[in-house]
């Protein structure tokens, strides 16, 4: 079962969809999320967010100044500054 992911900046929703893996940089280090991950609330550090979609394609973004929240296979990434790379 894939994750439901939302990547939001202060200006707009950048991407919403399903993913099998999301890796993001937090102040505690990089953390990866897959279906079934325990609930997490973490502060984002400046760095890449790597999203792998169910078809294997990848989405890259840069994000900083925000937080991420994981609960019930739903991951929300809220960044003050974020932009899609590809």
From TrEMBL:
CDD domains documented for this protein: F1-ATPase_delta
Ion transport is among the record's keywords: yes
Ranges of residues in domain ATP synthase F1 complex delta/epsilon subunit N-terminal: 3-82
Keyword Electron transport among UniProt keywords: no
Compartment(s) of residence: Cell membrane
Record GO terms (molecular function): proton-transporting ATP synthase activity, rotational mechanism
Keywords: ATP synthesis, CF(1), Ion transport, Membrane, Transport
Pfam families referenced in this protein's UniProt entry, alphabetically: ATP-synt_DE_N
Cellular component terms per the entry's GO annotation: plasma membrane; proton-transporting ATP synthase complex
Membrane topology, from the record: Peripheral membrane protein
Family named by the database record: Belongs to the ATPase epsilon chain family.
Name of the featured protein: F0F1 ATP synthase subunit epsilon
């Amino acid at each position: 079962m894939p994750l439901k992911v939302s990547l939001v900046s202060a200006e707009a929703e950048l991407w919403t969809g399903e993913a099998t893996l999301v890796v993001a940089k937090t102040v505690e280090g990089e953390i990866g999320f897959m279906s079934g991950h325990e609930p997490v609330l973490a502060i984002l550090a400046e760095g890449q967010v790597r999203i792998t979609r169910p078809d294997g394609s990848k989405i890259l973004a840069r994000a900083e100044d925000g937080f991420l929240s994981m609960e019930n296979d739903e991951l929300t990434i809220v960044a003050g500054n974020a932009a899609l790379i590809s």
